[in-house]
Amino acid sequence: MVAAGLVLGACAAGPGGDGVDGSAGPSTTTAGAITTITTTALPPSTAVLVIETPPVDRSLVRVSAGQDWQPFATFAGVTLHHPSNRVERVGFHQSSHDGARQLVPTATAVDPLTLETRERGTGSRTAADIVVEPGTEIRAPVTGTVVRAGGYVLYCEHDDDFAVIEPDSHPGWEVKVLHISGVAVDAGDRVEAGVTVLAPSATPLPFDSQVDEFTAEPSWPHVHIELVDPSIPDRPSRGGGC
Predict the structure, then answer these.
(1) Which domains does the chain have, with CATH numbers?
(2) Do 52 and 34 meet the contact criterion of CB atoms below 8 Å apart?
(3) Which of 12, 124, 235, 236 reaches 20 to 30 Å from 3, CA-CA?
(4) What's the pLDDT score for residue 10?
């Protein structure tokens, strides 16, 4: 099975400086965690007051982007859309399938990052974990036909649902969608990117995933998506099956 995980690029907004007019009034400048207030109307001996403020812990600040199921990646004419309209981050990582294609992030991908290697021998962006707001419906990331859908056991012990879609833009290939809860489509169904609901929500996993290291706490669930050429056989797994 495909493990959940992604690569993240953290970003933090830097403080901006505001100028204050008035020769007799106070001016304030901020540098890092130190705020300096200079009062020009007082004698020089009492001119400077320094106030120390604690630094902001960016790991505690969650930023999620609202978007209308915009594209997050593409490859060979296949465009993949965010599966939710509330996304915190897109983490790219190595797939466990040898036929998984190396995805190219789009300009509309929400806070994309590439996770560290998993030593799988596949490309660094052959899968993506899209961190989504809990309870938001999961829609098809691509337009096409459902090949198969249902439930499976993740890592031999955790119940999970999935859907596999053959994209119209590349017949014969498969878009795999994992970690969805209450799959609402069946084999043969037609789906439209950003329109057709695959499941009412993502599956909350009972363990920490690689992408969780780069999101706020408590971690949100993520949807795993990859684009696979099934004509390329997988190498035999050293760990065997369940």
Answers:
(1) 27-56 (no CATH), 61-228 (2.70.70)
(2) yes
(3) 12
(4) 31
